[in-house]
Amino acid sequence: MKKFSTLISLFFLLFNGLFAQPKYEATDISVNQIGSLDSMNLAQIAKKITTVSADKEQQARAIFYWIANNIAIDPKATKSSDQRKSLPEDVIKLRRATPLGFAKLYQEMASICNIRCLVVDGFVRNSLDDLNSPADEVNHSWNVVQLGQSPESWYVVDATKASGNLDKKMALFTKNFTGQYFFAEKTLFHIDHFADNDAWQLGGVKSKKEFYNLPIIYSTAYHYGIKKPTPATGYIKTKTKNKVSWLLPMDKSGEVKEVSLLIGEGRKMQKPEPMNFTAGANAISFSYQFKKDDTHPVKILVDGKVILEYMVEVME
Fold first, then answer.
1. Residues with Cβ < 8 Å from 176, sequence gap 6 or more?
2. Which of 54, 103, 170, 213 is the most exposed place for a label (fewest CB within 10 A)?
3. Range of 240's domain?
4. Do 149 and 93 form a contact (C-beta atoms < 8 A)?
């Protein structure tokens, strides 16, 4: 029976997450088997879920996995930046939170387990509507975890994004666990997040204005280890007689089987159009000629999943 239960849990992990992470698979399965712990308080939960390992990195992962799978994003509070119930104890009771609530809860659980952790406030872009439209106030929070003494021993964690996503109107939460937001690849993370504190602006993005001009990053990009893409700006201007060329540096270019573009939205959305792409050792590249004079939302799909989104303005 125990073996059967483990197989069920493994199936759940593979189905619930976009991609498996072998390094943390055993921890994820164990925490999933522990369950939601509805009758326990915050400290009891933190201690219970970290019994799965004596290793601090695996304990940090256990906290991340439990929070991302048992706490939902609160659409109304997030949209209105209502932080009145963002204290960890409130989040545990309500089982929903704003990004700040997620980050505070992660920090508190990590502290209970003697893991050094800080909350970072900053900015993310959620859709093409955010391009070139910097937010006036911080709209996201995440964590940094320290497991050693050197600057390289700080790691980034975003349990909010790992839990799922809100729709474009920020009215509906869809659960969709993405494990790659734990100890995320820093180059990609810091073109997907912009810290309000200069000390945590580690991605080479010089200003908030520059950050809001970058393409929209999707969670699947983390699996492939995407680095800084070209074009570097999210809003592209081109002419019908020219081609737009993309170069996507990535760690797992050898895994890519298909690249396609999804052009338009709503009733104007076209079918995904396969690209004739070239896969090098650490990058893929392709080009496309937009023949219609218009402004197009353009999603880049790798193996059927969206990784990046641009807005392309095409002129005669």
1. 16, 18, 163, 164, 165, 219
2. 54
3. 235-315
4. no
- Domain's final residue, options 214, 249, 267: 214
8 within a domain of the structure (yes/no): yes
Contact between 290 and 296 under an 8 Å Cβ cutoff? The reply is yes
For 277-304, b/e burial (b = at least 16 CB within 10 A) is bebeeebbbbebebeeeeebbbbbbbee
The first and second tokens of residue 8, run together, are 């069920």
Q: Quick one: 160 exposed, middle or buried, by C-beta within 10 A (0-12, 13-18, 19+)?
A: buried
Examine residue 220 and state whether it is found in any structural domain, yes or no: no
Give the model confidence (pLDDT) of 258-310 as tens digits.
Answer: 999 999 998 889 999 999 999 988 999 999 999 989 999 999 999 999 999 99
User: Is the same domain home to 156 and 32?
Assistant: yes
HEC sequence for 252-265:
CHHHCCCEEEEECC
